[in-house]
Amino acid sequence: MIFRIIKKEDLARLHELLAVNIVVGPVLKGYDREGRPLHDFDRVYDFAELALDYRLTVHSAKRFVLPYRETLANFKVEGAGWQKEVPSGSDTPLVLFGLHPCDINALNKLDLVLARSVYPNPVYVEKRKKLFIIGLDCAPAPQCFCRSMGADIALHGFDLFLTDLGNRYFVEVLSAAAYGLLDQIAGREPSGKEHRLYKQITTEKRKRFTTSVDTTDLTKILDLEFGSPAWAHWGDRCLSCGTCANVCPTCYCYGVEEHIDLTLKKADKTRSLHSCNLVDFAKVAGGHNFRPESATRLKYRYYHKHRGFVEAFEESLCVGCGRCGIACLADITPPEVIKSVRGEE
Ligand code: SF4
Ligand code: SF4
To answer: Which of 2, 75, 202, 319 qualifies as a FRET site for 145, CA 20 to 30 Å off?
Structure first.
């Protein structure tokens, strides 16, 4: 890895150089009832729109690489048969500007399933190839427990990573494209003092987490506590709204639907992201629902994230961003659920 120092004002130049692409970054969307700012990722046309001081966005940037709904194929009758047409995605590269470590790590986890598994998702793979990621260090929000999930630091999966040193940025450069870009900006090598300052800032960040989750032997605990009353306690509160999966940067389960036009001459096939908490998630043809109760569905979500995914990839499918707990109308948060399943509450 190569390290550089750039001045704060050079970030606008960096944006200018990248503006020929589709640039997405954190944007101020409004304020909540307590007057706290609400940020979300959106397309950015002007550097001034970027709210780089954000703490946590409502949604992650997942939807820009894994949309909630996308057309897989269109069909139309031509002659005696059906013609299939697969929509081609945009050729313009996508720049994700200002991703925090949790969201970079979330994309790394999605890669394991959607790009590096036995059955990769070709649409995702194409989008991922055209992605340029600028990471940004952050101050933990009260709900963040990314440190517990080992996702508070991004070691790979970005092109550039910026850490605020006051009036300048300490830049980690990972890709050749990023190196070429920085060449056009008057950067310099960091001094020994700046190396120490960078280490001091990252160490101090670790001390600022106020929420944590004990993940020790969690897969075993989950096996032991499959019948725990904690699942019914939390599951009965669950409204089965699916909001947690909607805001989650790592949820990727989906359903595929085919729609046939009334003229019987056109059809399309779409893929939509699903949520394992929704009532019909485990409903199969014939109408049988394998998980009719909200408690079994909630339990399944936790077992997928903290048990099944660990077994498959040796890491959890949760980065501890805290978004699901903030968005949940029933106040169901992973730290509290895991604590009670462990028998600590
Ligand atoms: S957001 Fe909360 S209430 Fe809605 S499905 Fe998720 S856990 Fe249940
Ligand atoms: S499960 Fe919740 S805390 Fe974990 S990554 Fe998803 S939204 Fe973030």
So the answer is: 2
